[in-house]
Amino acid sequence: MSAVQAVTPFETIRTPDAASRPVKIHTVAVKVTYGQKEALHGVSIDIPEKAVTAFIGPSGCGKSTFLRCINRMNDTIAGARVEGTIKLDDQNIYDPDLDVVELRARVGMVFQKPNPFPKSIFDNVAYGPRIHGLARSKADLEEIVVTSLQKASLFNEVKDRLNEPGTGLSGGQQQRLCIARAIAVSPEVILMDEPCSALDPIATAKVEELIDELRANFTIVIVTHSMQQAARVSQRTAFFHLGHLIEEGPTDHVFTNPLEQRTQDYITGRFG
Amino acid sequence: MTEAASRLPVSRLGGPEVRAISRIDIGLRRRYAAERRFRAYGLAAVTIALCFLLALFGSIVGKGYTAFQQTRIAMMVDFDASIIAPDGDRSPAAVLSGNAFRFDDLIAASLQKTLELDPDDEDGLYDGLDLLSKGSAPMLRSMIAKDPSLIGTKRSVDFYATGDVDSFVKGTIRADIPESQRLIKDKHIALIDKLEKDGALHLAFNTGLFTNGASTRPEMAGVGVALVGSLYMMLVVLVLSLPLGVAGSIYLEEFAPKNRWTDLIEVNINNLAAVPSIVYGLLGLAVFINFAHLPRSASLVGGLVLTLTTLPTIIIATRAALKAVPPSIREAGLGVGASKMQTVFHHVLPLAMPGVLTGTIIGLAHALGETAPLLMIGMKAFIVEYPTTPLDPATALPTQIYMWATEPERAFTERTSAAIIVLLAFLLAMNSLAIILRRAFERRW
């Protein structure tokens, strides 16, 4: 692993956090290859607990690929191979003994396009708790659903139509439903893969507000194309370019005073 | 703003630009003409197809509808106890055994009465008997065996007329051809006219067409055994090919690694779908009958062979339906921590269900009409008795049609068409069911 780092011409520039938070996810030299093509060339990063970490960078830079390593979603892609270490609370998630289903219950995910199940709003949120056996009774389940919808600030909009299909909601509501579905299984980490790219500005604002609230209870990692969004919602920002992690540090630091020329060029819109 | 924009190029660029615009116009006209031509071709193709379909249905229905009615001759029968049960034993077993000709005597007696014949007029009696189906005496016997309380009573019984009389009454055997070439002679015509005038000869709905088994006498032949055989086969096909096909497709589509072996399997499944069905018949003959020693002509073997022909269709349809489920649903399931199996069975399969069911029913409909493999395994036998289990010999609707089509009698010609109508009705019903199920399972996206 150290050999890999030695041949890498890129040295990630790190700025430590002023208010240092405990580390939730710790990765060392994560490499991802799709068949013959290496998409990620060794990413090492520490993601702090109960904070929002934003991954920014141009399309194809590997930020989504890296995000999907954290809950092993890349396992589902044929020919994808992941090397390196990813630790969640000191536990290696690529350990053969680790159950991937349990991992995904601990690390939830919200996708780019809202993808509610074609079932009722209630069933969408209740699905996770049901399969994991989190509710002991029907009342229990109802409580989990209501709390999750409330946490996702969706409850007031849908409380009268919980039995209507989730696919009938507007795009922004659907995405908040997906967030409610993710938090219903009480994960520790929520991964968000460009959660607002399919939403209008008003729905985006609502989701961003929600992300800010969720930070109190969850560790959030968000991939975004919008630098304004990264600046608004995140505490730490990591800049990816061509499969390398170029720079990472506190968000205000990265945006106002980047140490690396490429970061500077990207956030000022000179490329990407 | 739009006005300014549209006016600007013309005023600024003048002459040459105008020519350029008109050149675009010519191109447009050609493109629109091409589109109109294409539409006309399409319309013509659909019209021709509809015409052929109409001609096909018209000819089949036109030839076959008469078979749903049948000529009957109603006669008062005296169920004389001294003839039927000369030794006093009225049990069904006693009725079925003993001298079979005693029932012919009953019929002869009632025919003499109906035609008001002189008891000594033997020629007249035989001419009259010519009109009645040769199956009349066995019919009377089984009727009495079923209900021995008839013995000693007098009751009107509807006898079947022979197929030739039936054809004559329906006009397919014409009276204006010379008597020597006619199957129905003048003396018969006289008797038919007399019976018709008395109201004894009449047309009735042909229930026997649906309930009877094979018979050399067209008036007694029906598709009953073939219907039961086809039903058994469809059950076998459904029970075997739906779970096997769906489970196989789910494995191949969702779980199997994508490598050279699965590619090879996929190519071969597509090849199997194109294998002529008679080859499956040979395979069934070799494997199920010669090797596994399953009975010949059994609907179980037919079902097994048809399962082989149907499986590729179902697998291809199911895989296409599974492929059409957006990957975002799989990600959603996996993302909340569902296992792969849970994701497939809770989310992917329900969404693929309309496609799976349509594919299955189309496959079944195909199997229902399949003939060649059934000929190979001997399902074109002369079966009179209903099969009680799928292991009993039976025929199938398409093979019954094939057998009747080779019979020379006029009455079999109309029955062939009638059997085709029955088969088409089943296919239509199955396809409608496919559409209904598709609607029922389709979820709004």
TrEMBL record, chain A:
<dbReference type="GO" id="GO:0005315">
    <property type="term" value="F:phosphate transmembrane transporter activity"/>
</dbReference>
<dbReference type="GO" id="GO:0016020">
    <property type="term" value="C:membrane"/>
</dbReference>
<keyword id="KW-0592">Phosphate transport</keyword>
<dbReference type="InterPro" id="IPR003593">
    <property type="entry name" value="AAA+_ATPase"/>
</dbReference>
<dbReference type="InterPro" id="IPR005670">
    <property type="entry name" value="PstB-like"/>
</dbReference>
<dbReference type="GO" id="GO:0016887">
    <property type="term" value="F:ATP hydrolysis activity"/>
</dbReference>
<dbReference type="InterPro" id="IPR003439">
    <property type="entry name" value="ABC_transporter-like_ATP-bd"/>
</dbReference>
<protein>
    <submittedName>
        <fullName>Phosphate ABC transporter ATP-binding protein</fullName>
    </submittedName>
</protein>
<feature type="domain" description="ABC transporter">
    <location>
        <begin position="25"/>
        <end position="267"/>
    </location>
</feature>
<dbReference type="InterPro" id="IPR027417">
    <property type="entry name" value="P-loop_NTPase"/>
</dbReference>
<keyword id="KW-0813">Transport</keyword>
<comment type="similarity">
    <text>Belongs to the ABC transporter superfamily.</text>
</comment>
<keyword id="KW-0547">Nucleotide-binding</keyword>
<dbReference type="InterPro" id="IPR017871">
    <property type="entry name" value="ABC_transporter-like_CS"/>
</dbReference>
<dbReference type="GO" id="GO:0005524">
    <property type="term" value="F:ATP binding"/>
</dbReference>
<dbReference type="Pfam" id="PF00005">
    <property type="entry name" value="ABC_tran"/>
</dbReference>
<keyword id="KW-0067">ATP-binding</keyword>
<dbReference type="GO" id="GO:0035435">
    <property type="term" value="P:phosphate ion transmembrane transport"/>
</dbReference>
TrEMBL record, chain B:
<keyword id="KW-0812">Transmembrane</keyword>
<comment type="similarity">
    <text>Belongs to the binding-protein-dependent transport system permease family. CysTW subfamily.</text>
</comment>
<dbReference type="InterPro" id="IPR000515">
    <property type="entry name" value="MetI-like"/>
</dbReference>
<feature type="domain" description="ABC transmembrane type-1">
    <location>
        <begin position="227"/>
        <end position="434"/>
    </location>
</feature>
<keyword id="KW-1133">Transmembrane helix</keyword>
<feature type="transmembrane region" description="Helical">
    <location>
        <begin position="418"/>
        <end position="437"/>
    </location>
</feature>
<feature type="transmembrane region" description="Helical">
    <location>
        <begin position="300"/>
        <end position="322"/>
    </location>
</feature>
<dbReference type="Pfam" id="PF11812">
    <property type="entry name" value="DUF3333"/>
</dbReference>
<keyword id="KW-0472">Membrane</keyword>
<keyword id="KW-1003">Cell membrane</keyword>
<feature type="transmembrane region" description="Helical">
    <location>
        <begin position="272"/>
        <end position="294"/>
    </location>
</feature>
<dbReference type="InterPro" id="IPR024573">
    <property type="entry name" value="DUF3333"/>
</dbReference>
<feature type="transmembrane region" description="Helical">
    <location>
        <begin position="231"/>
        <end position="252"/>
    </location>
</feature>
<keyword id="KW-0813">Transport</keyword>
<dbReference type="InterPro" id="IPR035906">
    <property type="entry name" value="MetI-like_sf"/>
</dbReference>
<feature type="transmembrane region" description="Helical">
    <location>
        <begin position="348"/>
        <end position="369"/>
    </location>
</feature>
<dbReference type="GO" id="GO:0005315">
    <property type="term" value="F:phosphate transmembrane transporter activity"/>
</dbReference>
<dbReference type="GO" id="GO:0005886">
    <property type="term" value="C:plasma membrane"/>
</dbReference>
<dbReference type="InterPro" id="IPR005672">
    <property type="entry name" value="Phosphate_PstA"/>
</dbReference>
<protein>
    <recommendedName>
        <fullName>Phosphate transport system permease protein PstA</fullName>
    </recommendedName>
</protein>
<dbReference type="Pfam" id="PF00528">
    <property type="entry name" value="BPD_transp_1"/>
</dbReference>
<feature type="transmembrane region" description="Helical">
    <location>
        <begin position="38"/>
        <end position="61"/>
    </location>
</feature>
